[in-house]
Amino acid sequence: MSTAAPPIEQHATMRVLLITAAAALGGFLFGYDTAVINGAVDAIRGEFGLSAVATGVAVSCALVGSAIGAWYAGPLADRFGRVSTMRVAAALLAISALGAGLAFGVWDLIFWRIVGGIGVGVASVIAPTYIAEVSPAHVRGRLGSMQQLAIVLGIFASLLADAWLANTAGGAAQPLWLGMDAWRWMFLVAVVPALIYGALVFGVPESPRHLVAKGRFEEAKRVLRDVLDLRNEGALDAKLADIRNSLRTEYVPRLSDLRGPRMGLLPIVWVGILLSVFQQFVGINVIFYYSSTLWHSVGFSESDAFSITVATSIVNVLVTLVAIALVDKVGRKPLLLVGSAGMAVTLGLMAVAFSHATGTGASLTLPGNWGPTALVAANLYVVFFGLSWGPMVWVLLGEMFPNRIRAIALAVAASAQWIANFVITATFPSLAEMGLTFAYGLYAAFAVISFVFVQRAVRETKGMELEAMTD
């Protein structure tokens, strides 16, 4: 049994809300950096004369870096602290934005995108870990969902910036300021939020659980007092003792701690990995990385394609707000099940719509009402994803693992997510040439499988203390 202080004595203070918001800004950069390529794809393809395969690599290369960053974020966070690791992420994202915007060739661009990807991968692990560790249990789902809200706001900001810059220049491949093409400015403007993020994280306290793991008990006690508003010394001491017991601080967490009886890993680690993989295998980032190109290819003007993409990102933001309102009331698992079912239906409808397409490549068209049908289905798909698998996976990854392995297990799960993201993103141009019906039908099949997986393997964590999580 946990010896944690009763939940009724914990409160979500304004301080913890501000701390969470500052940490979640890493998610904003995560969203911006990964989606900014959407508006630049066609311009980059034309600038460097890329094939479909090379385009897929150029778009998805950042995800390789993200997998690397996510893999090492856990050990870095456990050794140097959550806050220091966030600062590293901010620096990498600022440097990569500058390098990508000034790239002189495709390999140069790929290098800087990989550097940025490492920063994104670090941010993807450290933000949910930190937020979960400073949040009171009864609002942890809502605060954890701020990570996803920040991600979708970053996606929205990047797509809005892409549209504005392209329209201002008269096209993404047209020169804008200082003689540089608009697509270059799409990358360069990310330097500003990266610097803001780096400045803000200097003002947040270290995670109390990391402080306890390092034996800094008085500092941990002060942070717990502030973020949980625990003024009863007995309850505060009990919470501190609970964390100390759960962490088993006699050793530093290692990858070997994740070993278990099922194919070499603990069952809970496999659940985290598969949650991450399914979040990507339903194809969500095809919408956010290639949607401008996709809508342009089926008859919409470049300007209209950008506008549609921005509208889709607004839908994503709005439904994420709904998810935040529901997560601690409805629970994580029911929302995931609803999302899987809805995505299966809408992806299936998109597959049917594109089965009626005529032409190929840039001359692809959808006759009659199939164009609007595909557009509505795509946005409904985003609704179901944004309500469920978008925020819920990050909430679960931040809270589902036992304290002693949380950061390193989350790093493994997040690495799996980025690898899955890379596979989907890199293969989409080739799959699209084979036929969009096949591509969206494949994603629909994964949505169906994800429903079965959640039903059988995912446990509800609503209202549970982090110290109550088990292997």
From TrEMBL:
Pfam families per UniProt: Sugar_tr
Topological type in the membrane: Multi-pass membrane protein
Keyword terms, alphabetized: Cell membrane, Membrane, Transmembrane, Transmembrane helix, Transport
Compartments, as annotated in UniProt: Cell membrane
Bilayer-crossing regions: 12-32, 52-73, 85-104, 110-131, 143-165, 185-204, 264-290, 305-327, 334-354, 374-396, 408-428, 434-454
Span of the signal peptide: none
InterPro entries: MFS_dom, MFS_sugar_transport-like, MFS_trans_sf, Myo-inositol_Transporter, Sugar/inositol_transpt, Sugar_transporter_CS, XylE-like
Transmembrane listed as a keyword: yes
Segments forming domain Major facilitator superfamily (MFS) profile: 19-462
CDD domains, A to Z: MFS_XylE_like
Lineage: superkingdom: Bacteria
Tagged with keyword ATP-binding: no
PANTHER family per the UniProt record, alphabetical: PROTON MYO-INOSITOL COTRANSPORTER (PTHR48020)
Family: Belongs to the major facilitator superfamily. Sugar transporter (TC 2.A.1.1) family.
The protein, known as: Sugar porter family MFS transporter
Organism from which the protein derives: Noviluteimonas lactosilytica
Lineage: Bacteria, Pseudomonadati, Pseudomonadota, Gammaproteobacteria, Lysobacterales
